[in-house]
Amino acid sequence: MERKHEKYDRLIKRAKALAPLSTAVAHPCDESSLVGAVDAARMGLIAPLLVGPLARIKAVADQAGIDLSGFEIFDVPHSQAAAARAVELVREGRADALMKGSLHSDELMSAVVQRETGLRTARRISHCFVMDAPEYAEALIITDAAVNIAPTLDDKVDIVQNAIDLGHALGLSEVRVAILSAMETVNSKVPSTIEAAALCKMADRGQITGGILDGPLALDNAISAEAAKIKNIRSQVAGRANVLVAPDLEAGNMLAKSLTFLAGADAAGIVLGARVPIVLTSRADSVTTRLASCAVASLVAESRRQNPSKAIA
After folding, report:
1. For 18-75, what is each residue's pLDDT tens digit?
2. According to the model, what pLDDT value does residue 4 have?
3. Distance set, CA 190 to CA 63, 120, 151, 185, 301 (Å)
4. CB-based contacts of 146, cutoff 8 Å, min separation 6
5. Which tens digit of pLDDT belongs to each residue from 121-156?
6. Per-residue burial over 254-290, b = 16 or more CB atoms within 10 Å of its CB, e = otherwise
7. Burial environment of residue 42 by CB neighbours within 10 A (0 to 12, 13 to 18, 19 or more)
8. For residue 13, which of 307, 266, 298 has the smallest C-alpha distance?
9. Which residues are paired to 279 by β-bridges?
10. What is the DSSP letter of 125?
11. CA 73, CA 106: separation in Å to the nearest integer?
12. Measured between alpha carbons, how far is 130 from 133 in angstroms, rounded to an integer?
């Protein structure tokens, strides 16, 4: 299937109009992570601060034919130290975003969530994929597919709010949130349907703001107007959702990967709820996806600058 990138191209174009985002890149010690950071810098999306073992970074650069002149490198002995130093650069005010290099996601996030030295806020940290699916009209946000394994109702309040805030940062004129389950009716035997209904009522009461929520909705009802019509579901969200909230990590991860490998979608990844946006990349990511992830982080950071009253405390 031919991959199309119209949604990503629009995001990248908007981000390129902004000043490069100062980004601490933790342990860029393989070709894909180093090339991704350098390519994003050359496009003016980020201003990377490379954090990792100097000798390894230079060896990778030499092998890949990358000129590192002009890039600031912080020499640390190993990946855990790289994660800690990258987080420290944010706390020092030298970086406005984090980017995962070739270390494990758990190593980076462990440094982020440390109570005394990390980047925690009052908001629950969560992950969003920003999907560019060729057959869907707009970018599709899927949460949470990488951080919260079995989120509680309280966790989901923050997960939903993070996704709504992301939607506004990406320029969505209306953020339409589908709380997914296996069915579109509330069933006491299916906990995700009860939580979906509760989240919608919480939005009615102003406990979640900035988006239009509906749920429970099955996936077909959420993204297919025809399916919603057949099942006689009338709402502002059904058939036209641009945010999909999965009941748990397993469902979210399988949904995102199904779209990627069966529908030709690309999945830019971002972690929200910390002091700064965090770019989570994968070795399997395409160049376009890596650039889109950096663009998303830049737009999130800019949104926070433009709306300081909404900044996460």
Report:
1. 999 999 999 999 999 999 999 999 999 999 999 999 999 999 999 999 999 999 999 9
2. 65
3. 53, 32, 15, 10, 37
4. 105, 127, 129, 249, 252, 253, 269, 271, 280
5. 999 999 999 999 988 988 999 999 999 999 999 999
6. ebbeebbeeeebbbbbbbbbbbbbbbbbbeebeebbb
7. exposed
8. 298
9. 99, 270
10. P
11. 23
12. 9
Query: What is the rounded distance in angstroms from the CA atom of residue 83 to the CA atom of residue 5?
Result: 31
Q: What's CA 104's distance to the chain center, in Å? A: 17
Q: What's the Cα-to-Cα distance from 51 to each of 35, 101, 124, 173, rounded to whole Å?
A: 14, 9, 26, 37
Q: How far apart are the first and last CA of the chain?
A: 43
The whole-model pTM stands at 0.94
> Which fold is adopted by the domain 123-273?
Isopropylmalate Dehydrogenase (3.40.718)
State how far the Cα of 98 lies from the Cα of 277, in Å rounded to an integer: 7
